[in-house]
Amino acid sequence: MTIHLDHLLIPVRDKIAAAKQLAELLDVPWSSTGVGPFAPVFVSDSLTIDFDQWPGPIPLQHYCFRVQQADFDAILGRIKAAGIPYRSSVFADNDNQIGSYNGGSIVYWNQPDGHQWEILTVSYARPEA
């Protein structure tokens, strides 16, 4: 059996702002009109992130993208250009530093509603073959 994660729904206060920010940082397409009530970000041919506007309390969540070093550098450049604070460790204060793990690069930042984003170049969940 082959299973692929097709999409995620992320609750936010402003779905358009959240979708636009993530799409710009990752340099991927998005849609303000979306499908139904969602503002989708087309992360890849096989994954869409749907932002959904919620009026109530928003549960904080963590999302990680594994990318190649050149993409990491480009995304980090866009994070810096946008003036978004970032950090080298998941629970650290914003130190605007790049972390390292298993020979790779890693950075964390928070979306305005508190969701935590991570980019890394070497997965700690799935070591390279």
From TrEMBL:
CDD domains: ChaP_like
Entry superkingdom: Bacteria
Record SUPFAM superfamilies: Glyoxalase/Bleomycin resistance protein/Dihydroxybiphenyl dioxygenase
Domain spans labelled VOC: 4-122
InterPro entries, alphabetized: Glyas_Bleomycin-R_OHBP_Dase, VOC_core
Protein name (Swiss-Prot/TrEMBL): VOC family protein
